[in-house]
Design a protein that fits this description.
Shape: rod-shaped
CATH architecture of one domain: 2-Layer Sandwich
InterPro entries: HATPase_C_sf, HATPase_dom, His-kinase-like_sensor, His_kinase_dom, HisK_dim/P_dom, HisK_dim/P_sf, Sig_transdc_His_kin-like_C
Protein name: Virulence sensor protein BvgS
CATH topology of one domain: Heat Shock Protein 90
CATH class of one domain: Alpha Beta
Strand content: 15-25%
CATH superfamily of one domain: Histidine kinase-like ATPase, C-terminal domain
Function: Member of the two-component regulatory system BvgS/BvgA. Phosphorylates BvgA via a four-step phosphorelay in response to environmental signals.
Number of strands: 19
Number of helices: 13
GO molecular function, one term: phosphorelay sensor kinase activity
Largest sheet: 6 strands, antiparallel
EC number: 2.7.13.3
Distance between the termini: 42 Å
Radius of gyration: 55 Å
């Protein structure tokens, strides 16, 4: 794949991964924010419900106390008649509450006949709603009248009235209990409803007796045309949402009071109550944006880093190919004169009679042979790195192959006083499919190294089958290898230094060739070594068992 296309593909993949991570992050953030918003809404609704229940309880108690006062006055009037002193009654314990503004009694025509404050006897109240209501309605009930400015007290008040009936059921008079409307709003002000909070105490016809809104109080407000009143007519109570023409959403709680003549509605500004979540949402969204930018920034940094690595890798490959080509050319150029030197040296050795000159020629021949082996190693490494060494699998007699390799090194081992032996397990097949040349070269390099670095003791080549693998171990009792050197053993041109020596003979190519040939054969090689105790190289190759030559036709027929 061209480098430009590879860069484009890498960039797209990195950004796709970054986009996926960012999408997952945003999905989680939005889900958690929605959960937090739902929890806050539920908390606001619970708070509103609790506040409404408290207001309803307070209103019911207040109405019960007002009704109790009206019933008590009616009872006393029926007993005492017009001689009843309401001023004395107000000063009694039962009417010491600041709720009451005025207590009064009107006759059956609506004329004032008694009051807890100085009054004009016979003052006509028949035009007042709270008086007229009892002229037309026959049932006996506590009627909440329209808030007015009292003609006797001169103060704003809500008029609660009850009938006084004769024994024959005719109207004898009307008890009027005037209460302070701000007694209700004082309680509302003590509640934490927020800046947009609102409380309505209204009648069934849509007249709000008292209203508390935006820290201000109002009385006698007509709300019959509002969405609140329209919604209240369709339900017995509960929590609902209303949105005004500006799009502002308000959360309402509604409930009927005892007797169902009066109703309570409590509101909270939903935007205000959700403000903590709104602030939290803004902070989290800012953090999410910054995190998204960080994710894509890191993705781009990774892409650039990959580009640098890829560029360095390609440069290294190019340099390695040039090196391999150079080594190959140099090796080819060296082989021709070396072969000439070895050939003519061998001819001179055949004809040389002088012992001393023969030894000189032998030194020349051995040195040339060693140099030729190094050149061959360079050529082999160069061919492997350039991919010019294909794997050629053929059926081979494994026991014969192993014995042949070990036998070649037997003389050099015995010369040093080191025993060299081969142990083949019974589960090893007689024939396998392998690349004979490459397997032989691997074994030669491993055994040659073992002989080179073992001065006494033994070298054991053991072969067994384990987990569908052919396992070959070359174990020696030589010098051992330091731990820090073991990880570099298969690096090209790496040499181990022993003592004050600068390094053992050779270019450090034997083990790198072993590693690369093993990789080519789809195997692996590992080393285990301890200083002063020895080293074990273990070769793991795929086990490809093959039938014996005589069994091949039968095997083919069965197949």
């Amino acid at each position: 794949m061209p480098l430009t296309k590879r860069k484009r593909t890498t960039t797209i993949r990195a950004m796709a991964v970054a986009g996926l991570i960012a999408a997952l992050m945003w999905t989680s953030v939005m889900y958690l924010l929605q959960q937090a918003e739902n929890m806050q809404r539920e908390a606001v609704e619970r708070n509103l419900s609790s506040v409404t229940q408290a207001i309803v309880a307070h209103s019911n108690r207040t109405l019960q106390w007002i009704d109790h006062a009206a019933l008590l006055i009616r009872q006393r009037y029926l007993l005492e008649g017009e001689s009843l002193d309401l001023n004395e009654l107000v000063n009694s314990r039962d009417f010491s509450e600041p709720l009451f503004v005025l207590l009064s009694i009107a006759d059956s025509r609506g004329a004032l006949i008694s009051s807890s404050q100085p009054y004009t006897k016979g003052l006509d109240l028949s035009d007042r709603e709270h008086i007229k209501e009892h002229f037309t309605r026959k049932n006996d009930f506590l009627f909440p009248g329209r808030p007015v400015i009292g003609r006797v007290s001169g103060k704003p008040s809500i008029q609660f009235t009850r009938k006084i009936l004769n024994t024959n059921g005719t109207l004898a008079g009307i008890v009027v209990v005037s209460v302070d409307p701000y007694y209700f709003t004082a309680t509302y002000q003590s509640l934490n409803l927020g800046e947009g909070g609102r409380v309505e105490l209204f009648r069934s016809d849509g007249l709000a007796l008292v209203r508390h809104q935006d820290h201000q109080d109002a009385v006698g407000v007509d709300i019959s045309g509002t969405d609140l009143f329209k919604h209240a007519q369709t339900t017995d109570g509960g929590i609902f949402h209303l949105t005004d023409e500006k799009g502002k959403e308000t959360l309402w709680a509604y409930s009927e009071l005892e007797g169902k003549e009066l109703h309570v509605a409590v509101a909270m500004d939903l935007d205000e109550q959700m403000l903590p979540i709104t602030h939290l949402r803004v902070r989290i969204l800012i953090m999410a944006v910054l995190l998204s930018m960080t994710i894509f920034g890191l993705a781009w940094a990774v892409v650039k880093y990959i580009f640098v690595i890829e560029k360095n890798r390609l440069q290294a490959i190019e340099a390695n190919q040039k090196k391999s080509g150079f080594l190959s050319n140099v090796s080819h150029e060296l082989r021709t004169p070396l072969n000439g030197i070895l050939g003519y040296t061998e001819l001179l050795l055949l004809n040389e009679k002088d012992k001393e000159r023969g030894e000189f020629l032998r030194v020349i021949y051995d040195s040339g042979a060693h140099l030729l082996s190094l050149v061959d190693s360079l050529l082999a490494l160069s061919r492997i790195e350039r991919g010019l060494v294909p794997l050629q699998l053929r059926r081979e007699a494994l026991h014969s192959l192993l014995s042949g390799v070990v036998q070649i090194h037997m003389r050099s081992a015995h010369t040093k006083g080191v025993s060299l032996s081969l142990h083949v397990a019974r589960n090893v097949p007689a024939y396998i499919f392998c690349d004979r040349v490459k397997l032989t070269q691997i074994l030669h390099n491993l055994i040659r190294n073992a002989v080179k670095f073992t001065d006494r003791g033994s070298i054991i080549v053991s072969v067994e089958c384990r987990n569908d693998e052919l396992v070959i171990a070359v174990q020696d009792t030589g010098r051992g290898i330091e731990r820090e050197c073991q990880e570099h053993l298969f690096d090209t041109f790496f040499q181990i230094k022993h003592g004050d020596a600068q390094g053992d003979e050779g270019f450090g190519l034997g083990l790198p060739i072993v590693k690369q040939l093993t990789d080519l054969m789809e195997g692996r090689v590992r080393v285990e070594s301890y200083l002063g105790k020895g080293t074990t190289f273990t070769l793991h190759l795929p086990l490809r068992a093959a039938p014996a030559p005589a069994e091949e036709p039968t095997a083919q027929k069965a197949a």
